[in-house]
Here is the input.
Amino acid sequence: MQNNTVSEDRLRSKAKLILKVNYFTSFFSLLFCCICLFFLNITEIIPFVFLGFGILNLMNTILYYYHKNLTLTYNIVSIMTLAGASVITLYSGGINSPFIFVLAIIVIAGYVTTKKYGTLYLNLNLLIVVLIYSQSIADFNFARNVIPEESKNLFALLSVLFSVYLLGGVFGKNLLHAHHTLYKTKSALEDKINEKETLLKEVHHRVKNNLQTVSSLLSLQARNAPDAQTKSLLKSSQNRVISMAMVHEMLYMREDISKIGYKSYVQELAEYLVRSIKGTSSNITLDIDIPDVRLNIDTAIPLGLLINEAVTNALKYGIVDDNQGHIFIKLRKGIGDEYLLNIGDTGVGYSETINHKTTQSLGLKLIHNLARQLRGSISRDITRKGTHYIVKFREINQQLPSLA
Here is the structure.
């Protein structure tokens, strides 16, 4: 919506400038026609070119209000101006004619419209200037100077005044106004973007607080649970909630609210899980190898949950009691938009016959479902001691699908 507003404002500014230039040049063309005929005693070619241009350009401008095609209106006036200015230049002194500066204004008008048109008319005008010069030094000079000797200085003065006023009083003034308008629009859009970013940060902050509240409720429930199994289930759910809360916390604490640096997130998550399950003093060594990878929230949360389940399983069932153990987490950019995650431990592992379809373990089922949610695949490396997963996934940019 905002981009459409900016485009409409720019189109209106261009239309206003082109129409104003059209009216201005039509009026002065008709005025020049009268001056040439009645004051400068110029009776050949030049006054009739002014007259024809003035009438045709007025018709071209009026027709714009019917077809609303600004590009067509601009191209017609540019071609007429190019042809008219070339003819007047040829018949008023050739390369020495003061009217030749009008050709430069056509180039400026082209760049005001688009870079493509500016480049086109620049090359055309360079070619025309060279041709005018070649004609002036040729043996056969078909375009003679029709300006009377006594009127040359006054014609030169009027030509220069016309060029300077058109360049400064019309183009310069309107371009400055358009610049200020676009600057104000840009500033307003930046203010709105900053306001939205502030609101998004506040949303992430509140989501994080709500998730922490849920985590606290689960912790209270775990304390009052009648048996160890229920406590374990509630604690696992609490850790899942915290892994999601960490993502929102990182998003609102950083300047870029669209993506998070994943290395610091995984480091904090893994250290929290070790403290939560094994206590503050344990024999667990974390080996986290993640480059400067930034992932959006739609990818960060399911991937974080997957890592949470794998690390939790390793700490609870792989590295039992107070035994020493290593947990490895390695993330790499693969081919194209693919990522490769290696995650494993040096624990006791589990049987090759057990998989997510046959087991009753919620954690193992979640790992496979989360890999599918990430539009990826997961496989197990059974050649190494412990449990090692290889997860291939892609960054997603859509609402999180169901885990069912």
